[in-house]
Amino acid sequence: MSTASAEARLGVDVGGTFTDVVLRNRDGSYSTAKVPTTPARITDGILAGMEQAGAAAADVDVFVHGTTIALNALLEGKTPPVSLVTTAGFRDVLEIMRTNRKHMYDLMQEKPVPLVPRHLRAEVSARLNHLGEPVRDVSEGELHEIARSFSSAGVVGVAVCLLHSYANPLHEREIGRALAALLPGVQISLSSDLTREWREFERTSTTVINAATMPIMSRYLADLAGELEKRRFAGRLLIMQSNGGVTSAADARERPVASLMSGPSGAVAGGVRLANQLGPGTNLVTLDMGGTSADVAVIDRGEPTTRTIGEIGGWPILVPSLEIEAIGAGGGSLARVDAFGALSVGPESAGSVPGPACYRRGGTGATVTDAHVVLARIDASQVLGGTVALDGDAARRAIDEAVARPFGMTLEQAAEGVITVADSNMTRLLWEMIIGRGRDPRDFSLVALGGGGGLHACELAEALAMKSVIVPSQPGAFSAWGMLAADMRHDYSQTISTGRDGSDPAVIDTTFEELERIAHDRLTSHSAGSEAFELIRSAEVRYHGQRSGLPVALPSDARAASAIDAAFTGFESEHQRLFGFARPGHRIEIVRLQLSAIGRQHVATDAGSGRSGGSIRRATRPVYCGGRHRDAIVLKRHDLDSSARCDGPCIVEELTATTYVPPGWTLRVDANRNLHITPTAARQEA
Amino acid sequence: MLTIDPITREVVHNRLITVVREMSLTLQRAAYSPIIHEVKDYSSVLLRPNADLVAESEGIPSFLGAMPATLAPVLEKYGIGAIGEGDIFVSNDPYSANGTHKNDINVIAPIFYEGDLVYFSVTKAHWSDIGGKDPGSWSPDANSTFQEGVSIPPIRLYRTGVLNDEALALILANTREPENNYGDLMAQIAAGRIAERRIHEILPRYGRDTVEACIDSMFEYVENRVRAEILDLPDGTYVASETVESDGITENPVHVTARVIVSGSEVTCDFTGHEAQRLAAAGNINRVCLEAMCRVALKCLLAPMLPANQGLYRPISVTSTPGTVTGPVHPAPCTTWGDMGYAVYEAIFAALAPVLPARVVAGLFGYGQTMAIVGRRKAAGAPYVHFMPYSGGWGGRTGKDGLSATCPLLNGDNFNIPCEVIEHDFPLRVERYELIQDSAGAGRQRGGLGVRTDYRVLEGPAQVFASLNRCAIPPRGLFGGSPAALNFLLLDRPGGEVENHPKAAGVVVPEGGLISHQTAGGGGYGDPHERDPDLVRADLLNGYISPSAAHALYEWQGRGAGDPERPESP
Hints:
Chain A has 686 residues and is α+β, with helices and mostly antiparallel strands. In chain A, strands 13, 14, 15, 20, 25, 26, 33, 36 and 37 form a nine-stranded mixed β-sheet that branches. In chain A, strands 3-2-1-4-11-12 form a six-stranded mixed β-sheet. In chain A, strands 6-5-9-10 form a four-stranded parallel β-sheet, with helices on both faces.
């Protein structure tokens, strides 16, 4: 094992309900803990989890953290008051947005309420043209006036986003310096520090969200770092970002907008690590099914799929982000029959409070979890999170009242119907992300995550004719396990707007040199670590006239003979692969350059644990599937080693998740204790 | 008939929706005309052989209900028994083919299963040019259908998989962008093939009888829900009128009156008895588009979130008189019907407002407000045309102010062009892109605000072409709310006066001149005096209304913005 991997690495994923802690010891062994999240002070839960996992802060070399604290504040409208400085004539860009509307026929729809009300948006006369050349300079006098008004309004943060600052940050920096001096204690976010891409609304939205979440992230990370320091933590604190990589805590405090999707990204980081473990070129789709929604992401030949822009609560965020789509289908999704005889499942959810009827928390609505209890796919006698026994009668009552009686069905038919409809909804999203984006589902395995993923995965894989279902070892701690090995990653991008010919190799090289300089400055100033950074160049390429392009890799020297031609050829074959056609001879252009600085984390592949030698307990219980009760074999997850094999119907139970293997599917276990479930017929052919 | 359980129905319905969405995705990706992927100016449907709408993907609202009508002329001309596997039909004629805008090309393909014709796939997509007198085939001032582009009656372009290349050559010889058009046609055909492939997967999987029973059941479900909504309305005839300010050639306004007759669980939109058809395109709306607009209006009011299928249409009928502006006959020009279109749905909203006060919105800012800035670059004299969709205010609603800066109802998920991109692509400087104070109608719930876009001409001269509406008759208020401001196109040329040119037809603006495009807000809803004083105060603080307007419209007595004291009585 290499020396780089002989670090003690801790992954900490703080979710809405549970905080997961995974410690990889210096000898490659693991210990884990799952403790309740402590909303009043998140750090308390983390410390409790560390203690339970036996992770002494002083012994941890690398602490990787995924947090949804800023995201939650944003979604709950609990961000502090901030203000905005714009170019004269453009203070309403934040409110005009892009003028589109999502629902064609809904006359009652709303636009999201801007995070900065209009009276806190100030205009400055400074102006750049589209080449980034100053047309009017910054006026100091104006800034004094603006600072006075912001100060009296009590704002704690200021966002500055000026027209064309993607081409030249000069004015924003002058204004930032002046306001920092005039408004001590107020945190300033400049759009040019966050993104160098055009589209003023998207950039403004990004900057405002950064300003509004900075105080929250700062306070939180200072608290966490302080507690760790008290416990003599001397390692590096790294934060999971929306792009699937990690960054230093100092960087995350300054650019919280880049780590808003820190939580959901962890599951994808886990998917990437799993894909690496399974071998080169592995194609996976992760399905992380929680209480209210299911997150889906695609890992294409070992690489996560990303997009150049994210969105949260209707607000675009112009930073490269993993492509994660959510659908309102979770264990708490409510099943309802309307007055005209249609059954809907979700998106309304009972959440975790009051929760499914069987949770004994006051919920009475019929949920997906209740349906699983009725079908005995979830064992009603098991205890929830180790504390409260489920209430099977409450589940039956809820399904009976909400679905069985209105439809005149048996209880089991109704429950199976609820699952079928929930699956049908999820299939639509999976379809969109796989077939709808030019991918063949037969090449992909579905990774079941969260409490509910394993209960639905086989039926979803069946509907889409996917290759197999994989349930990783410890599906509940998968995010924390994935993030502790995630690479450091910073993305820098630049719209190509200087000059009409975006494919001029000299322009490309100059732009990349500038991006490399910015990358170098940031990496040094945050002393991100000792690792060498790999610099990877890519470009967004499109046919002239197209609205969006495709990412294409570029060599490190664009002036090299035929480098651009090679990139364009790569674009055409990717276009052919994804869309089924190319347009030979049509003009191709580069619209955006991206530099990714990646610091590889050399964490050795987990050694296979092989056979445990212990006996496998096989109980049976009747479960309802395909319209009748059948005896299913019930297995305990921790008994299963690579010798295990079982045909469905079968149930695998573990503390935080249940896996259902339907008839026609066969379960086996690999050396790393991942479950692989494949159609039985296909297994026999193989 | 096979009875179907609601669970199977839900699953099959999800699969069918997935088919039409995949058709649209295929079409959008493979299409050449920018308007298809930018503005989503297309639609995909599955029809039964009797033209019942099985499933429709969400395209732009203008096409709602216009798709099934394309099949009848095909069946009438060719006879269903003579249609074979591998046949593909195309059409666009607003008269003989039940077409819409001439650029909207219908591609209609039968889907066979086990030797039977089971469904038709139909796509409609906007080709960037289809001939006619003007580039782009957008001619509000066309005086006959012949000026609007090539007419394609239903023709069998493919017979058993073999292309009639002579017919295609004739069509393409009459357009300005034959290469793009050919690419779009191939994209539409590809979409049809996807539909066929998916139907061939679905029918064996679920069983043909089951799928058919699910479709019947979905129709019935939607129909029952819509009928229940209509039953809630008191029987009666509800009437309201709207005015289109110009027919495209003359300023002689066109009056449109909606008589909405509610009887039991059925509703008829009666547009009979209108004036004789105009010899100017913007003054006519053909039957198919009239029906589509009525369906848009009623879907918005009665069933915004329900899937569109035949069940939605069954309780709705539309009547009009042939030879009139709402039922023009050949060869009347009629394919730039957007102004007539918004008049139709706004008249229906206004007519039903008294019985659906919680569902309607007050007047919207109009339609399109299109403007093109045309000029030449100084360097090399390269020509440029700047054109983009504009947004404005929507009307106030029960409990909610209107939406500000939102694209027209008839457009789909329509994006503006960022100012940074405009300045990069054209020798124009955008000096303002902002909401217009006092542009909204006052009300208990005020309208949304309109948008001002100011362009400085950097390399002159430029020419301005515009087709603004609602320039004389403002968006209406409802229930005592005030009308909104008008739309303006103000041209400020050095050395001259500022002039309003909402119908500019090539007005020259020299270098240094300013083009100020200003859209209307939405109408107000309810008595302004009933507006929550805190909201008036917030509007003042944020500058959405001026102190004088607050005083005049809301009788505001407070001291205005920043005033910490609550006024004694507003």
